[in-house]
# Entry
Amino acid sequence: MCDMFGRLQEVANSLLGLAQLYRNTGERALSEQHHRRALALRETALGPDHLLVADCCDGLAALLAGLEEDEVTAMPTEAKTMGSRLKKALSLKKKKGKPADSEVREAEALYRRAMDIRSSRLGISHPDMAQSLNGLGLILKRKKSY
# Structure
């Protein structure tokens, strides 16, 4: 049984790498699809309140809200490094577009969920809380909802 959960986690990590690749190449819909699949796998393998689920929530929220990587760190380090190298090598530009209101609402909910997971597992003063707080803050700033 434990081996199955390990394999699900490996698949989730691969999906997140692909999500980053698609995001870097401007394929937002494919990126979102892979983020959602990775989130579902991590929830199944690790439970809904695992810290890696919070990481997935942050990544999907950043994508939905149209936040750039340099605005909020939302991907595992290995996926960010791989995506950054590929983007630089291919000199690709991301497609920009304003996210739909429903996407921004979902992103806000995902950041809040990640914050809830991290605060219950790590405490509110843990440095990892900053990732979700930063993303949520950027969304609220854009909405002018301070």
Notes: DSSP finds six helices and no strands in the chain.
